[in-house]
Every structure is written in C-alpha cells, then in structure tokens.
C-alpha cells in the first residue's frame, strides 16, 4: 500500500475589494437662497438629456415624510443639492426640468415628497424597477452600482436625520453620490432591458408610476402596534387604540416620529395594566422617561375614555377584512377556492420563470388571491383580462397571463 500525498485544498479566494465610488467634481454649496436657486435652475435648464433625481427624508426622526434635501444631476449642468425647507416650493425648479425624463431609484419612495414641493415628472425611468424586471438578485442602488460599474457605494448615512441643519459635509457628499451614477446606470440598465425584450414592459411600468401619489391609507393603522398580539381583551384593545391616536396627534403636531413620543412597547404595557388614576399612571414604569411624562394628561385622558366605552363600541379582536381570508384557512373555509389558488399560483410561477421575472412583478400576490377566492362569473380570457385591467395590471402583464389564469381557474 502506497501513501498518496494528501490533497491540498487551496483557501477560497477572498472577495475582491471594489473601488469606492467618489465624486467626479467638487461638492457645491447647498442651494438655500433665491439667488442660488435661480442660478441652479438656469444651469439645469441649459443641460442636456434626462435628469437624475433623489430626495432625502428624515424617517425615524420626523412624523412627516417631507423632503429635507433634493439632489439633481444633469449632463452639462453638474450636480446640485437643494434645500427645499428654504423655499415655499420648488415650482421654479420644475419649470427648469421641463419635459425631461426623470431618473429615480425606487421612485415610489420619492415621488410623494417631491410632489409636495411642486415637482412632478412628465416621464420617468426607475432603475430599481428596471432591475426587478431583469430579475437581478439585488436591486438596491449600491447593488446596481456594483453589478454594472464594478464599484462600491457608501450607504452609511441612509438612516441619518436629514432635518439636521446645517447638514454635515460627509452627509452632503453621500447625498451627491446618490445621483452621481444614475445617468450612466440608466443607459446600462436600458441596454439590458432592450436585449431581454423587456424595454416595452418597462415603459408601461414607468408610465403607470406617473400617477402614483403614495401608498393607500391603511384601515385601522393602530392595529399595527408592535406586540399587539399580546393583548387579550377588547377593553385593552380600546386602550391601545386610544393611546395610538393620542400619540399620533401629538407626533403630527410636533413633527416627531411617533415612537419617540411613546414607544409601542409602552402602549401595550399601559393597555395591559390599564391604570385607573392619574397617580397610578404617573407611577407606572412606562412613565419613568421624561419624554412620555410630558404628556401624562393626554395618556390618562385616552385611557379614561377607553375604559368608559360601552361594550358595543369596543374594537373587535380581529381586523375585519373585505378581501379573502389568509390562505392557510382556505382549505377549511372553501376547499374548491384553495385548489384554484394552488393552480393559479403554479401557472403564474411558471410564466414568471419562463420570462425570467419575479412572480410578484408579473401578478401581485393579492391579485392572485382575489381571483382565486372569487373569480369572475365568466372564466374566459377576455373576462379575466378585463378583471386584471380593472385591478391595475398593465397590458404586457395581461397579454402574458390572462388566458393561462382563465384556464387555471376552471375546475378540472
């Protein structure tokens, strides 16, 4: 028996360190005076091609979702950092944009706050949505910069308090970098869309975003209080509801994120304890911090009002929904609908795989559930197409899925 030399397995090669993206020209001062805005508008209007655009909010610090910084870049005019708080609105900037295409990343995050300051696009290109249509594994801006440009993009100030004034220079550099590469990214992403035959689909998706005004208002938003599942009685739920609305009113008035006024954990704790006197509330552990104690009377008024409600005005333990029940309950409630859901999901997944798409970008999960739970009376492709169109599907989606979904809805 011979001793064979032991096989040496080389160490895995370390991940290459990508060069860090940097500014291509010096950082310009923040535009916060009428003269500076007029100069920025003049320069931008003289530029060429589409406009890269981004906005920074102060989520986690402020109640409002207003923009606290607007970043603009255009070929021939460079980058501009504009303080929208310094002006009544930015209508003048919108006039400088004209009908030029906007390039945004994750447009639904920024369109509402930009509209709030008078900026509305005539056409747009969303690099994140384009990445989804290309079925890229990661579609964040930093991931796209790595994928297409082979560079790393710093994101350490994404959760900063952008309502801070003056804004620190490192934050401003970070903000400028967010639009630094959007012009170049658009061209590279568009080339891939064209090569994949998806540029027409993307245009339909982008055009649909032009009417986006924000997410739909939630019914009973207080029910999203963290750990509300620990609440067992309807009376305690009423206290959660009353405290949530009291906190929301204070937060809106002071433009402070609600969790900084009274954390969700404190709301749940107070609903569980249900203190019946102001002194008992004052001694409660949730009131040890100076912040919540400032609004002691508001909390007690809310608790007192909830404790005084008649039984028939107490909230139910579960939120009533007009849509179908959770899919896990379908087998018991309606086995036929449960079987339809399995068939439709399989059909949508197959079409998505065939066209290299995320299934949710082909047909939204809620729409799939709605069709399976309560399909139209007529299960022909035309009726399904009409139903899809009424629920917001675009033409390219309808053409791909209407007939297969119609067939899947028919009981075999």
From TrEMBL:
MF-aspect GO terms: 3'-5' exonuclease activity; nucleic acid binding; nucleotide binding; ribonuclease D activity
EC numbers: 3.1.13.5
GO-annotated biological processes: nucleobase-containing compound metabolic process
Keyword field: Hydrolase
UniProt cross-references to InterPro entries, sorted A to Z: 3'-5'_exonuclease_dom (IPR002562), Exo_C (IPR041605), HRDC-like_sf (IPR010997), HRDC_dom (IPR002121), HRDC_dom_sf (IPR044876), RNase_D-like (IPR051086), RNaseH-like_sf (IPR012337), RNaseH_sf (IPR036397)
Region of interest (Disordered), ranges: 310-332
Domain HRDC: 233-313
Protein name per the record: Ribonuclease D
Organism: Aeromicrobium tamlense
